[in-house]
Amino acid sequence: VFFMRYPASVPADLRVRQQVRSIDLFPTLLDILGLEIPAGIDGVSLRPYFDPANLRPNLLSLSETLADPSQRLISASDGRYKVIYAIDSDRWSVYDLQEDPRETKDVVAQGAEVLSRLKPEIARYLAEGVASGDLEFPPDQDLKQRLQSLGYVR
């Protein structure tokens, strides 16, 4: 959830219903301020989404987490479906976010079309992203407790 108060440019009570991403905040703020968005920056301005009559597509969202130090998860979501890849166990899951927003029922058996669409996005992320060895570090006890308190590790 992101709240912003900027009466000159953001409509009051605006609620964007499409899926957007945190990487879009910086370009959006630059656009609102009338500043040039630098070339090569990740994300896009969400300003076109401010007009509810202007139906825009959901933006593809990619994320990564460590469920615990031995389980690296990568996900791709198109707003309707979410595909999760557990690297260490080489396991794929598919969730229908419209029917099951809490992701309690894995529909991977019925999700062949979704997998064929979103698997390449995860593969591209892995090819361009952080190498798994870069994530392996022995956190000291203080860091581990802070990460646990924030919900990043169990």
Structural summary, described in words:
The structure is a single chain. Helices cover 22% and strands 18% of the residues. It has helices at 25-32, 112-128, 141-149, and strands at residues 61-68, 71-77, 81-86, 91-96. The protein has a four-stranded antiparallel β-sheet with strand order 1-2-3-4. A hairpin with a 4-residue loop joins β3 (81-86) and β4 (91-96). The longest helix has 17 residues, at 112-128. It is globular. It starts with 24 loop residues before the first helix and ends in a 5-residue tail after the last helix. The mean pLDDT is 83.
Major sheet strand order = 1-2-3-4
Give the helix tally. Answer: 3
Query: Rg, please?
Result: 18 Å
Main sheet summary: 4 strands, antiparallel
Shape: globular
Helix content: 10-25%
- Reading the helices and strands in chain order gives HEEEEHH
C-alpha end-to-end distance: 24 Å
Total strand count, please? 4
Low-pLDDT sequence parts: none
Mean pLDDT: 83
Structural class: alpha+beta
Task: Write out key terms for the chains shown.
about 150 residues; alpha+beta
